[in-house]
Amino acid sequence: MAGDSRAQRPPERTGPCARWPADKGDTIRQIVERAGDKWAVLVIGALENGPVRYKDLQHSVPGISQRMLTHTLRQLRRDGLVTRTAYPEVPPRVEYALTALGATLLDAVTALIDWAGTHHDEITRNRARFDSEAAGR
To answer: How confident is the model at residue 86 (pLDDT cuts 50, 70, 90)?
Structure first.
């Protein structure tokens, strides 16, 4: 089918990716990756009620290491989602807060976290069933 123009065209994009300008796809995927990262989701959710000190933030996100929290905060700051304010006090005080842009993610982040909590038991059962069936093959 060398003369068939359909064979030469890339397949049409569907779903949410179809709404992206083709030349912006790489950047949009990077943004989705950052916004959907498990630690970023939990940090953004933990900043919901206003500025939080680093140690309080670390205690609010179970399982996050100091290194990963520092890395996540740096990336969120780079994307303009979080601010870092250092106060010239002794001992030094540093607080993190959502920017106006970061606050626009709260509804999506909260919905995702709530969904995970609501469906935790069902997903755990599904995983166990799947693993059991896979082990039996």
So the answer is: very high
17: CB partners within 8 A, 6+ apart: 25
**Rounded CA separation 49/124 (Å):** 30
Average pLDDT, the chain: 89
Interhelix angle 66-78/38-46, rounded to 10 degrees, is: 80
Q: Is the bond leading into 91 cis (omega within 30 degrees of zero)?
A: yes
2 token code pair: 């060398």
CB of 77 within 8 A of CB of 64? no
Per residue in 23-75, pLDDT (tens digit) is: 777 888 888 888 788 999 999 999 999 999 999 999 999 999 999 999 999 99
